[in-house]
Amino acid sequence: MNAFKKSLLIAISVALGLSVVPSAIAEYKPIAQPVEPANPNLKIESRNDLFKSQFPKQYESWANTAQSTDLDSVNYEDPRVVVLWAGYAFAKDYNKPRGHFYAVTDVRNILRTGSPMTPDAGPMPMACWACKSPDVPRLIAERGEAGYFGATWASGGAEVVNPIGCADCHDTTSKDFAEGKPALRIARPYVLRALEKIDHKFETSDKTDQRAALCANCHVEYYFAGDLKQVTFPWDNGVTVDAMEKYYDDIGFVDWTHAVSKAPMLKAQHPDYETWMLGVHGKNGVTCIDCHMPKVQAADGRVYTDHQIGNPFNAFEHTCANCHDQSKEKLKEIVKSRKAEIKDVMLRLEDQLVAAHFEAKAAWEAGATKEEMKDALQSIRHAQWRWDYSAAGHGGHIHAPDVLLKVLGTGLDRAADARTQLVRVLAKHGITEPIVLPNISTPEDAWKATGVDIEKDRKAKAEFLKTVVPQWDKEAREKGLLPAEK
């Protein structure tokens, strides 16, 4: 990294309120990523409403994803996460996912994307839109990857306006689609490249694998690579938690430096496709579509694919009952118990990580050196990566409970390593009494303990939503990307 880039990285980190310290891993060496040029032959109609009359049942069920209205804050449910993500935007605001209908709305509203009042303002890159809309593959086709990535998130505000929908999974401009055929397609080139790395080339896969791979458009682990901040899947070594960790360690990638412990951290996204592949359902060819988008019969007798993408228990006879002979109540109890078991271990790991971060802080304050802290910080990185891999996914307690328990178990091992290493460092600097942890019983307490001015961020976001977002929608309507206001 040359001096200018290093200075720029430090300036950006300071502006975002991140800690800048020598990390415990190698300097980031980005792997060169392919960059697809514009593809004028790839036609994508991103407006979902244009297919309402042609596919009324599918459209109606998709629109029903709007019924998932609850905005449950993980930060309020579990204030430990404010500490675990200290120095990273997730610590400010992280909600449980709602229906696809809200994909664009929720990424606009979340504090994580900041409050950019101009198209050039930060803090987030264009890549933050990547999973939210069929406008994304449309823009990549029009501009090429170099023309899409490399810009700010705010610069895409008037272009990325249609929530996850038809053109994310179907070739909506094809003859097959016009004739009522599925016409399945992945139009994001970086997804196609990633699938090839794990020998799942989309074009030559069978229909079962293709249907599952569609969900890999978004429900995967990824990071933003290089100066372009290009969406990239860390699958070069495989899709297990260890394989992806090795990938990140080998290139020295760091999502952020922890504001409390100064550990070089990784932030998992939502590795649902990976855990599904490793679990019993994936190994037996039961796909995401089978459970979350079953074929159902309308009142007129027509069979169609339900696009509401809901809880499999809501359509039990069309989903679980196709394979399981237990009653719905019995199966729900089994799932509930597995979820509780995983949650119990997950919270135990969170407690260990919170303690490790504050113990590392005490060690730095006692005068510990970078060399003395290196192994402990690496252990914190690896422990929290395993926690986040398990916590960030959706439905892992159903998809692969055995995988998650093993991941969390190895996370506890690494957290124990970190705390043992820190005890030795602290003792070397004369501290032998237990470190007293601050009160983090509420998110307000946790934000205070980690130096976050949450009210300042909330006021800025409110102003952004009041002044900037309406202008984005106005411009989108003028371009024909949204239907005219009634």
TrEMBL record:
Swiss-Prot/TrEMBL catalytic activity: 6 Fe(III)-[cytochrome c] + NH4(+) + 2 H2O = 6 Fe(II)-[cytochrome c] + nitrite + 8 H(+)
Tree of life domain: Bacteria
Residue numbers binding heme c 1: 128, 131-132
GO molecular function terms noted in the UniProt entry: calcium ion binding; heme binding; iron ion binding; nitrite reductase (cytochrome, ammonia-forming) activity
GO biological process, one term: nitrate assimilation
Annotated Gene3D superfamilies: Butyryl-CoA Dehydrogenase, subunit A, domain 3, Flavocytochrome C3, Chain A
Binding site for Ca(2+): 221-222, 267, 269
Cofactor note: Binds 5 heme c groups covalently per monomer.
Keywords (A to Z) from UniProt: Calcium, Electron transport, Heme, Iron, Metal-binding, Oxidoreductase, Periplasm, Signal, Transport
Residues the record lists as binding heme c 2: 166, 169-170, 307
Alphabetized InterPro entries for the sequence: Cyt_c552 (IPR003321), Cyt_c_NO2Rdtase_formate-dep (IPR017570), Multihaem_cyt_sf (IPR036280)
UniProt similarity note: Belongs to the cytochrome c-552 family.
Task of the protein: Catalyzes the reduction of nitrite to ammonia, consuming six electrons in the process. Has very low activity toward hydroxylamine. Has even lower activity toward sulfite. Sulfite reductase activity is maximal at neutral pH.
HAMAP family the record matches: Cytochrom_C552
Protein name as catalogued: Cytochrome c-552
Biological source species: Pasteurella canis
